[in-house]
Amino acid sequence: MGVASAVDGDDPAAPLQLADEAMAAGDVDRAVAHLSAAVRALTAAGDNRQAATTCARLGDVFANWLGNKVAARPWFTRAMRLIENEPPCPEQGYAAVAPMGCDVDDPAVLIDRAALALDRARRFGDVDLETKALADGGLGHVQAGRVAEGMAMIDEAMALACGGGTKDAGMIGKSVCSFFTACYYTADFERVEVWSRALRQRGVIGSASVPQAFLSSHCGSVQGTLLCHLGRWGEAEDLLRRTSAEFEEVMPGGAWHPPIALAELRILQGRLAEAEALLLGRDDHIQALLPTARLHLARGDFDLACATARRGLRLMGDDRVRAAALLGVLVEAELSRGDVNQAAVASAELDMRTRGLNLAALGADAARQRARVSAAQGNTAAAVAALQEGLDDVATADLPLLKMSLYLDLARLHETAGDHAEAVVEARAAAALLARLDVVVRASDAAMLRRLGVEAVARRVRVGCRVATLSPDGVWWTAECGDTVVRLHDTKGLRYLAELVGHPGTERHALDLVDLVEGVSDIGIDRRRLGDAGPLLDAQSRAAYRHRVAELRDDVEDALAVEDDDRAAKLQAELDSLVGELARAVGLGGRGRKASSVAEKARLNVTRAMRAALTKLTEALPAPGAVLDRRVRTGLFCCYEPHPDDETIWSVQS
């Protein structure tokens, strides 16, 4: 039966039931068709309340299942309009808080809608609606700078979610998402730990269903961010990769929060191409704006960093928490392009928005940006005082990475001013913190420490199984770690891996791996010259695409702001096309892919073979195999990049 015949008729119950069945089967497109038919039938019947509820469901499907914010917003708007003139009813509350709280850009809008929903919830005794209204309202107040008030509302919402009186898993899931978002932006990781245990016991977080897995992935993302703040990057990477993989098993292609959090880590690590690949297609959502702006800044595209930060600030209105981080990017970008006056304006705005928040990390970062502006203005004394104020802000906070950065900035200021003794003191303080951290030190910071004669001692290597080996044995390979020895049948993938493991830190082109493992073809043709149609996009074109994507993001938001949905849809179509081209053109190692080339075919074949071999190794030696999987980079250029803190170091024995 086709969609049209399935939804024909005047009875809206039939398409609603079919929509439920389609969603249960994962057929989202068919569900959209059935829900659209139900809206038409309900509107024709004059049942505005049920029609509004169905419009809200359609908006939810477009926003959270299809990732199409442009298509979602008109449905959410229509849901509210259908019942705005109705007598007070619960449906008005449900329509008001239908979107995910974290997807509402302006906290003032979120607070107003949550207040309406809370009134309807308490008037009609709807606990599910009350939970969502409290969570969204709390998130809005947190973002607006009323952190204590907001967190009190969120705690009340979580108490309701864990209390057993709720029935709507979808509403509870969205409420928990608002909770995680508030904790993420305020670095309130203790609250995450406390409530996560209760939510798991209640069965709200888990892996059995898509809603449970979604919330589990959000929880893992917040915990991964905590590990990043603590300077435990290896653990953060493990957690975020595992969290993303677990969600992909339940809903392939649907992971959202873990890739964004992992992109932030990749930027810190200097792995910018990988960060871009993770953010492509996600940078239209407010949560991805900050890492996107930081990516442009790290790449040296200061104009684009400024534009992205300013777009986020426009969308956020009077937000004080999320906006603080974007203002920090804006200060750095303006300084980097030589506009000290604009940097000073942004720094003053940052100070104003963070004043009185009592959030240590934001206060310290504001002081750090103020110091950078003062240094650029030639006022070293003011810069030093600002950094010392920042250190006072985090004196009792467990934020070693931020403290280390502040000490490094102080050391650099003293060195520039010619005060060698003070510079050494601050550098030693930074090095003492660095010894506890698992982070990538910027080359400029490492060089300064060397100039000052300060040795940054690496963190002590964890005790565990230290060496795993691969040994060829005819048509078999022996993999050994400690007392565990396994034999694996010879494959090309294992031979590719052995070539990388035997030369740690050395990049191998996919074609070089094919040559080394299989031998060069006897016909005497250099395969690197076959079928190369040139880069899909050269560096200049990729940069132009990035700028056009940023422009289109602004245009889409402008169209949505005036409710010009047709124009927004057309702009979104162009945007999707550009994002697709950019994603297709960028290799995992940051090198542009070649069009229709033998090299591209080799990349695909080598990657498949190595992934299959890594799967076999991980099944045989779970912990050592997981380390190898994490440290092998595939793509057009492949490499085994061990880290001294890894539990296992791999080697090849002949």
Q: Which percent range fits the helix content?
A: 55-70%
Number of strands: 7
- How far is the first residue's CA from the last residue's CA? 62 Å
Please write the CATH class name of the domain at 467-534 and 597-652: Mainly Alpha
- Which structural class do you get from the secondary structure elements? mainly alpha
Tell me about the largest β-sheet.
Answer: 4 strands, mixed
- Pick out the low-confidence regions: 1-8, 460-465, 521-537, 587-596
Q: How many helix segments?
A: 30
* Overall average pLDDT: 84
Q: Would you identify the CATH architecture of the domain at 467-534 and 597-652?
A: Orthogonal Bundle
Question: What order do the strands of the largest sheet run in, or round the barrel if closed?
Answer: 3-2-1-7
CATH topology of the domain at 467-534 and 597-652: Arc Repressor Mutant, subunit A
**Beta-strand level of the residues, as a percent range?**
under 5%
Shape: globular
Q: Any idea what the radius of gyration is?
A: 27 Å
